[in-house]
Design a protein that fits this description.
124 residues, 8-stranded mixed sheet, 35% strand
């Protein structure tokens, strides 16, 4: 069983050109993630801070896995993603040094929470 906490903010996932500077608006909330690859600059941040005209998809809610999680732990994402996949719920994952965060669309949050609870996980 894993313990999850639902974060209060509604988030957006944004895509900027690979050579874009990291915008200040992306850093405004308590939770944000920045990933740069050879193809893109991908941002996860508070939806309310994303300016118009930015390529983004909003309406994401975030569940934090209680951590810290040891790097030797095996199957954490499988234990969380399998019940969601079986319920037909897609997710977006952000991992950090200490833990993992699952993002699900707001309109699928209720079924996602139910699926995770049925799988034995606790949610606060």
């Amino acid at each position: 069983m894993l313990k999850l906490t639902l974060l209060p903010e509604t988030l957006a996932i944004c895509r900027l050109p690979r050579d874009a500077e990291i915008p200040g608006w992306a850093l405004a909330s308590d939770f944000y993630s920045i990933t740069r690859t050879a193809d893109e600059l991908s941002l996860v941040c508070r939806q309310a801070d994303v300016p118009g005209g930015v390529r983004s998809e909003g309406g994401w809610r975030c569940l934090k896995v209680s951590g810290p999680l040891d790097f030797s732990m095996v199957g954490v994402m499988a234990r969380l993603s399998t019940p969601l996949a079986e319920a037909g719920i897609s997710l977006f994952v952000v991992s950090t040094f200490d833990t993992d965060y699952l993002l699900v669309k707001q309109d699928r949050l209720g079924p996602a929470l139910a699926a995770l609870a049925r799988a034995g996980h606790s949610i606060t």
